[in-house]
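Reopening this one. Same input as before:
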Amino acid sequence: MKMSNIVISTLQKAYILYKRDMLIFKSNIRANIVRTILFPLIILIFFSNIGAVAHNVPVGVVNTANNANSYKFVQALYATSSDGLFKVVSIPSISQGMSEVDSGQVSLLLIINPTVGSKSSSTGILAYYSSPDASTVEGILPTISSVASEFYSGIGSRGIVPLNAQPQAPDTEFAPTLTSGLSTNYEDFLVGGVIALVAVFGTLFGGGFTLITDKQLGNLKALLITPLNRSSVMLGKTIYTLTLSVISTLLVIVISLFFGTTILMGFVGVVWIFILVLMLTLGFTGISLIMASRVKKPEIYAIFTQTIALPLWFLSGAFFPAASMPTWMRVISTVNPMTYAVDGIRDVMITGSYPLSTALPQIGILALFAVIMLGLAIKLFKVQIA
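Same output, byte for byte:
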C-alpha cells in the first residue's frame, strides 16, 4: 500500500474514533460544560478581588548619585523592607540592573538620580519593570513612593523594559515603549493562569481518561480488532483533546470578559492565546496518554493527574510572578512548560504586545515539550498494547 493511502486511511480511522468520543461528550454536554466552567468561576469569584499579595519582592537599586540624600533614601528603603513586602538588592550599574529586570532576577529596578532630594526636581528616582511583574510591582510602588516623597522625589516614568532596552542616562526620563497600554488589574493577571490550568485539566481528563475507560470496558480491545490501528487511536484521542481545549479556552475567555478582564491585543491576541493553549495541550496530551497506557484504574489516574497538574500550575506564576518565588522554585519554574504558556497569555492580555522575539522562544519551548511527550506516548502506547 502506498504511503499516501496509509496516511489517508489512518486519518479516516482517527476521525471515526474522534467522532465517537465527541458523540459521547455531546450526550452529556450540560454536565461537561458545567464541569468546565465551574472551576474558573470559583477561582475568579474568590480570588479576583484579593489581588496578588506577594512578599519579599526583589527590588534592585542603582545609586548613580552617591550623595548624602541618596544614602538616606537607600537606608529608608532597607528600613521599610523589614516588614517583608520587598527586599532591597544593591546593583552596581544601570546596564546590570536592566539585565536583571529582563531575566527576572529583580521585579523592580530603581535608579537614583543625582537630583534626589532636590525640591526643584520631581523625578529623582526612575523605576523600571517588566510586564510579567506588573501586577506585583503595582502592589509595592505606593510604599516605595511614600518613602521617595520624604526626599521630595516622585517615581518618574514607570514603564515596561523592552527586551533590547539600552541603559538610559541617569538624568533622562524613561519613555514607555508600549503605546497600546498596560493593564495591571489582578483579574487580567489571574486569567492567564486559569486558562492554562483549565486547558491542562481538560486534556488530562479528556484523552487519557477516555483511553482508560475504553481499556476498562474492553472497548479498546474491540477497537483494535477492527481496521482501526494504534496510530489511528492515538491521533483520534489527540484531536479530541485539542477540541476540548478549544472549547474550554473559549468558555474561560467569555467568562473572564464578564469579570471585566481585557485582551489588549484584541482578536489577534485571542489567536495567540489559542496557539499557546494548543501547543500546551499537545504536550499534556502526551503525558495523559503515557499515564493512561501504564495505569489500569481511573481513580489512580485521577490521583496522578492532580499530583502533576496542580504543582506545575502553582509554579507557573499563575497566582503571583515567578520572580517573587524562592530561588529553588524559580529554577523549577524555568523548566515548567506551563510557565511559558501563562507568560505568553499574560503578555497578550496585559501588555497588548507579543513581539516575535518573545513569542518564538516561548512557542518553541512548548513545541519541544509536545514533541518529546507525544514521542514517548507513541512508543509506550505501542509497547503496552502489544
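So the earlier flakiness isn't reproducible anymore. For the record, Residues 97 and 192 are 27 Å apart (CA to CA).
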